[in-house]
């Protein structure tokens, strides 16, 4: 099989590979530290990684992959209920964390290994796994029930990163800057493994700030990855920050993903800097499907064209292929290619339902295709997936958490347009005691403690009853506007 990280095998160089703040690892140092991790986890199958935005997370994941095991990134902000489900479902052989990290009680029963970024392990080992073996198990929020673990094979990681290299002319000379979390696909696969596969460098901000973006882009970084919330804050800051204008103007590539970037923010950034942000489209289960190419038209409101190796089609409600790609006819996106996940862990029913009989993955996203192949996403097939601050959040798990509060009789969750977050989470509550309903801050804290802070409702609306159909199903489209 081919190596995921050619620059780490054989004779790794002294070029900088990773920089997190003032902490730096060269390729030679990364190979040694990841080699030590690989020795420790080899044969463990699935390995949990406490995925803080730190150097140790990157070393841990690379080490797990070098050992031929599968990494299970854990969101450090997950509540006990969500984390407990993920651990029971994935059953990791051990958990990797940075020295000094305080782990929650849910991890108490698991063997812990601290990652030493200055350790020295074998640097010449070739990854001992096949292309079809699992590389990652990433948990994605479904619209109902607990998160599902998408098993992502090694071939999908390599295929997606190589396709993006083709689309974006991404080379080892590029230096990527971002401040994305490292427990999902955008920040981890694209933002860390992407530069390492090319032999380039990544500078992680730790926490996103416009000052950090300006500093790194003006200090030699060539690419910026972000989510719409980040670019919205950039657009708001540009008029009074000449250093930020200079930074974005000089960048080779500005990429937004994880949700649609509003056209208004596209235009404000372009007007201030002369540079256009380009978008791409992917999912946990598919990694990347489409992208605006570096040598193509940066058309606001579109996510570009299918990546090399990816087949994409639109189907109507009956499952038949849409006849006309005319920029107007709407259909559900289905994709097929080497970028796809293999299964939902321990969920053969959900896996079977996700694919057509001839191997197309049903994304649930609805789009139109322009005649020249550009894809424009217009919404979700379902109403229960909320995209907020770059996260895809399932309404069902938030509803379940709200219903655990003693003051809540009924609950529904929807998304509402938000200039900063893309969508904000709105909770519709029927209180157990109409004379003394739980207040919004209490409910937000209740959800944040059980799930994660970014899943808390930003707005709470109170009703006497939720609209339901004859079968008792809540009709969200009938909720008051």
Automatic annotation (TrEMBL):
The lineage of its organism: Bacteria, Bacillati, Actinomycetota, Actinomycetes, Kitasatosporales. PROSITE patterns: AMP_BINDING. Residues 12-345 form the AMP-dependent synthetase/ligase domain. GO terms for molecular function: medium-chain fatty acid-CoA ligase activity. GO terms for biological process: fatty acid metabolic process. CDD domains: MCS. This is Acyl-CoA synthetase. Pfam families: AMP-binding, AMP-binding_C. NCBIfam families: PRK07787.1 (NF005858). Belongs to the ATP-dependent AMP-binding enzyme family. Residues 397-473 form the AMP-binding enzyme C-terminal domain.
């Amino acid at each position: 099989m081919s190596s995921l990280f050619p620059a780490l095998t054989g004779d790794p160089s002294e070029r900088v590979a990773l920089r997190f703040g003032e902490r730096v690892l060269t390729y030679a140092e990364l190979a040694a530290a990841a080699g030590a991790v690989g020795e420790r986890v080899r044969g463990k199958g699935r390995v949990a990684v406490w995925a803080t935005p730190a150097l140790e997370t990157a070393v841990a994941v690379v080490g797990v992959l070098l050992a031929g095991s599968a990494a299970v990134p854990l969101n450090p902000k997950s509540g006990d209920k969500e984390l407990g489900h993920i651990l029971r479902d994935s059953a990791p052989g051990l958990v990797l964390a940075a020295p000094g990290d305080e782990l929650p009680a849910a991890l108490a029963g698991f063997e812990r290994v601290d990652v030493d970024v200055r350790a020295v392990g074998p640097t010449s080992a070739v990854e001992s796994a096949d292309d079809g073996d699992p590389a990652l198990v990433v948990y994605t929020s479904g619209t109902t029930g607990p998160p599902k673990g998408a098993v992502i094979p090694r071939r999908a990681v390599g295929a997606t990163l190589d396709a993006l290299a083709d689309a974006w002319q991404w080379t080892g000379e590029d230096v990527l800057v971002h401040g994305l979390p490292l427990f999902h696909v955008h920040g981890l696969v694209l933002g860390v493994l992407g530069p390492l596969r090319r032999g380039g460098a990544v500078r992680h901000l730790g926490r996103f700030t416009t000052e950090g973006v300006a500093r790194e882009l003006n200090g030699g970084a060539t690419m910026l990855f972000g989510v719409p919330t980040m670019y919205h804050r950039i657009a708001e800051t540009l008029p009074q920050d000449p250093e930020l204008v200079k930074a974005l103007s000089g960048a080779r590539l500005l990429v937004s993903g994880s949700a649609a970037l509003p056209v208004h923010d596209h235009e404000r950034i372009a007007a201030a800097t002369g540079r256009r942000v380009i978008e791409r489209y992917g999912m946990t289960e598919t990694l990347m499907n489409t992208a605006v190419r570096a040598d193509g038209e940066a058309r606001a409101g579109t996510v570009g064209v299918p990546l090399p190796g990816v087949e994409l089609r639109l189907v109507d409600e009956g499952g038949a292929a849409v006849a006309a790609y005319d920029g107007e006819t709407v259909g559900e996106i289905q994709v097929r290619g080497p970028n796809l996940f293999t299964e939902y862990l321990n969920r053969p029913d959900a896996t079977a339902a996700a694919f057509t009989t001839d191997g197309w993955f049903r994304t649930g996203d609805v789009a139109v295709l322009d005649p020249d192949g550009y894809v424009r996403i217009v919404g979700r097939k379902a109403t229960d997936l909320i995209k907020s601050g770059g996260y895809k959040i399932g309404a069902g798990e938030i509803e379940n958490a709200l219903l655990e509060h003693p003051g809540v009789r009924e609950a529904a969750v929807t998304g509402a347009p938000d200039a900063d977050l893309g969508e904000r989470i709105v909770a519709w509550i029927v209180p157990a005691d109409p004379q003394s309903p739980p207040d919004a801050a209490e409910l937000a804290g209740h959800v944040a403690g059980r799930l994660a802070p970014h899943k808390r409702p930003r707005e709470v609306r109170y009703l006497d009853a939720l609209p339901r159909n004859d079968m008792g199903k809540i009709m969200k489209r009938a909720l008051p506007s």
